[in-house]
Amino acid sequence: MIQSIPLLPEGRYKLEVMKNNQLIEVREDECHSWTRNAWNMFASTFILANASDSLFGTGYLSAKNTAGTVVYGSSIFQLRGDTGFSGLEDDFGYSGAGGSHTRGIVVGTSTSSENFDGHALGSIITSSSSGLYYNPSVSPSASWDSGTKRWTVAWVRVFNNMTTNVTYQIGEIGIYAGYRFITTGNNFMFCRDVISPTLSVPPQTLLTVTYYFITQFPE
Q1: Tens digit of pLDDT for each residue in 21-78?
Q2: Cis? peptide before 197, omega within 30° of 0
Q3: pTM of the model
Q4: Smallest Cα–Cα separation from 127: which of 168, 81, 68?
């Protein structure tokens, strides 16, 4: 008999703060933060059901973008970039362009509780060349472990604190996924993790955030 396997990947995250090539702090933990958006995307794609409900919440198949607008229609909520099924460039999935805080791994200062129906970070830190700068997402790497029968994919993004006198307190991290659902340019929060206690990112340091997505195969 095939064992029961969770439908969505297991998630872990790592935060690393470096100054002058020296590691000054590391945080690692499990994440249990897949949002309703992520579950609805999986359900709509896997069972081929249109995400056509005008409401968002328990019992409705739809999406809510990072602006708080419910997105729905006679279409499957699926993995597709703004220009089509085009791979892992900046318009697709979990990738984010340099200087952009609208897609990819994002960080914020809020420590409000994780919420399954959440659609955005509580207080995102916007990218700035004179503040906290969002570098482009690193191309994901995938590895197979034949012993545990697991695929692990690592998504990485580096943030530069460009200031000389500002320490950022990171209280939340997450992923804004870019998908072409109903219209182009929609972004959806697929996960959010609260960092407690908050993580200090001092001036002139680098913050690296890595999300590990682990898919367990039954055999």
Answers
A1: 999 999 999 997 899 999 998 888 888 899 999 999 999 999 999 999 999 988 888 7
A2: yes
A3: 0.90
A4: 168
Contact 124, 105 (CB under 8 A): no
Rounded Cα–Cα distance for residues 82 and 93 (Å): 10
Query: How distant is the alpha carbon of residue 181 from its chain centre?
Result: 17
Give the start-to-end residue ranges of the domains of the chain: 16-216
Round to whole Å and give the CA distance between 159 and 169. Answer: 13
Indicate the burial class of 170 (C-beta count within 10 angstroms; 0-12, 13-18, 19 or more): buried
End-to-end CA distance of the chain: 10
Residue with tokens 């209280």: 171
CB crowding 61-95: b at 16 or more within 10 Å, else e: bbbbbbeeeebbbeebbbebbbeeeeeeebbbbbb
Mean pLDDT of 186-214: 96
Question: Residue 78 and residue 86: Cα distance in Å, rounded?
Answer: 13
- Select the more confidently predicted residue: 180 or 30: 30
Q: Which of 117, 89, 114 is nearest to 195 (CA)?
A: 114
Report the 10 Å Cβ neighbour count for 194.
Answer: 19
pLDDT at res. 198? 98
Cβ-contact 17, 24 below 8 angstroms: yes
Question: Are the beta carbons of 181 and 71 closer than 8 angstroms?
Answer: yes
